[in-house]
Amino acid sequence: GVLGTDQADYFVDDFCVPPYSANGCASPTLLSAVNITCTSADLTWTSAAGKQSLVEYGLAGYARGTGTKVNYVTSPQSITGLTANTNYDFYVADTCGNDTSAWVKSSFKTANGPITAAFTAVPGLPTAIDLTVAFDASASVGATSYSWDFGDGNTGTGVTTNHTYTANSSYTVKLTITGPCGTNTLSKIVDVQGINIEENIISRSLSVYPNPTAGQIRVTFETASSEDVSLSIQDLSGKNVLRFEESNTNGRFDNYVDISKLARGVYMLKIESGSMKAFKRIVKQ
Fold first, then answer.
1. pLDDT digits over 189-228, tens only?
2. 273: Cβ–Cβ under 8 A, 6 or more apart, which residues?
3. What is the largest distance, in Å, between two alpha-carbon atoms of the chain?
4. In which residue ranges of the chain is CATH 2.60.40.1930 found?
5. What's the fold here for domain 113-195?
6. CATH 2.60.40.10 matches 197-285
7. Helix or strand or coil: residue 216?
8. pLDDT tens-digit profile of 57-116?
């Protein structure tokens, strides 16, 4: 035999006593990890019929024997509580009565998303003292919690929320979402205009009808003087989809806007005249 190793053959008189070997119990094959998410995975392997398996897993490079153990199971085996974008090793051995096969190793990496923040901001009608904006983050992907910074020193939570501003300005609103795959943030500029009595002449007199509609809307409002008027229709991302101007309104605007070619959905009508602005939500059927 070879002395100094655990694989030596030992001879006593005329008898040879071989070292223990797991070769009599076949090892599992075809180890794989499937259905991998940011926090879970299904471990699969192939064993001989009727065999149960021992499973151990941990962070890549861990010492076998120190990982998380799941004993006497069959394939597939679901594991949870993992960390996103992280490498893991796992080992599987089969049992054969009182015997155990050699351990077989495989590795996998958890997913890193998707997690994407998205939101819309829809201003209401301004009053003499404030303006309320409706925020909606339901288009976000992979989120379980939502945190808002409204840009004026106030914060909020929830997938949808309203916030009331008390001063005209452009505010940087930040949404932070958190989910199984981590955290993601998105910032947008929200334009708040029309607060105070002088600016509010348009919003106080603004009429848009019919609303909802599949065709034209009639837009009427008063202006402070014979200022030029600019009307734009924006989608909820803030992109202009229609825009036109009218000169010398002589204190009143009364005209039709054709939205028949727009896709169905919610839009924002933005009116500008001189230093004044007003907003109105419209629905295209």
1. 998 887 774 555 887 888 999 999 999 999 998 887 777 8
2. 202, 223, 224, 227, 228, 229, 230, 249, 253
3. 122
4. 197-285
5. Immunoglobulin-like (2.60.40)
6. no
7. strand
8. 999 999 999 999 999 999 999 999 999 999 999 999 999 988 999 999 999 999 988 899
